[in-house]
Structure formats: C-alpha cells, structure tokens
Amino acid sequence: MNAETFAAAVAGRLIVSCQAPDGHPLRDTGALVRMAEAAAGGGAAAIRCGGVGGTPDVAAIAAAVDVPVVGLTKDGTGGVFITPTVAAARAVVRAGAQVVAADATFRPRPDGRPLTETIKAVHEEGALFMADVAALDEGVAAAEAGADMVATTLAGYTVPGPPPDGPDLGLVRALRDRLPGALIVAEGRYHSPASAAAAIEAGATCVVVGTAITDPRWITARFAAALR
C-alpha cells in the first residue's frame, strides 16, 4: 500500500484505536481483536493498535480485519515510548501493519538514532510511516524527513501538567496551512462525533478515536459522573 492508496482509503473517515494498558480489564489480545472487528464492522476505515501488547496485538488484529492496520509498540510511559526504536518499527511491519506509528517529537530516542533512520527502516520494510507529533515544527520536520503522514497524537502530552480537556484543533489547522498537500491525522482527545467532524473541517485528512469508542470503563465513568 502506498501513501496515495492509504489516503484515499481514510480520507474524511474514522480510524479506531484499539488498545488497552496494563491492568485494564481489556488488556487481552483476544478482546482487542473482537473490538477491532466490531470497529471495522461499524465503518472504521483503519485500525490503530499495538500499544503495550506490542506485535502480538498487531499480528492478531491484522489477521482478523480487512482494513489497513496502523501498528505500534509502547515501551514505558515516559519520554519517547511509542515505537521508540528502529528495531521496534521493523517488528511492527513484520507483524502485519501497513503503517507504523512512532513518536516523532524532538525528544531523544532510546536507541540514540535519528528519526530519519526509523522512517528509512519502515520504508525498507515496505510500510508507511505515521509521525506522532506534539507541535507544528515537529510535524514539518517529520514531513521533511520523509514521513508519509503527520498525526497530532502527542499534542498536550509532552509539556508539564495535565493535558487539556479537548483536542488540539489549532495544531490541525496549523499543520494543514504549512503542509497543504500532506496527509494530516487528527488524534488526541476526540471524545465526541462533533469534535471528530470539527477536525475534518479544520483540515485533517482523517481522525483517530480511541478511548471514547473502545474504553467502556472511561465511557461509564463519564456517564456516572454526569448523574452525580
């Protein structure tokens, strides 16, 4: 799959993130596969998966769904931990992902290698690279380094203090302005259909939604809090 084919498949549509952290009741590969199947059945254009389950989750979901898979690994919870090394990126592709998502911020990577080497490795394996960024300059740099798409995944998560409540639509607009022909992925705190639609209006090619669709514990807590 090339970038143009992927862009055509996801343009104006939804990517669903099917992940669960350690200790979560859904932290089970089989449960995440069924979640991914349900999301694809509901109209998801692609599935983002991997997380702390790493490549077994990617492999199982890629084998179960007929939509593209955006794969990743997570190693730790601080600094660069989303597909943090060249080796991790290669493993994600070999597990069956058509796209590898990785931290593309300016923070140092654990293997000490530049982002360009991870992008090159992903392309050598025959997959596309999704750059997860937190800021405009990181997105521009990732695109210049060869990333096939830029995602706002880390907006609000690389600075001190809690992240804001809502998504960073301003970053979506800024990336579209600076990268007019790029595949821009809106991700991060899109908690309602209205906010997802707003991202498309702001210039995103597509939108990733995870928690608001795939975490019944979080959804239940929101309803419970509203009734108190």
From TrEMBL:
It is an enzyme of class 5 (isomerase). Keywords: Carbohydrate metabolism, Isomerase. The keyword Isomerase applies. It catalyses: an N-acyl-D-glucosamine 6-phosphate = an N-acyl-D-mannosamine 6-phosphate. GO terms for biological process: N-acetylmannosamine catabolic process; N-acetylneuraminate catabolic process. Its EC number is 5.1.3.9. Belongs to the NanE family. This is N-acylglucosamine-6-phosphate 2-epimerase. It comes from Actinomadura verrucosospora.
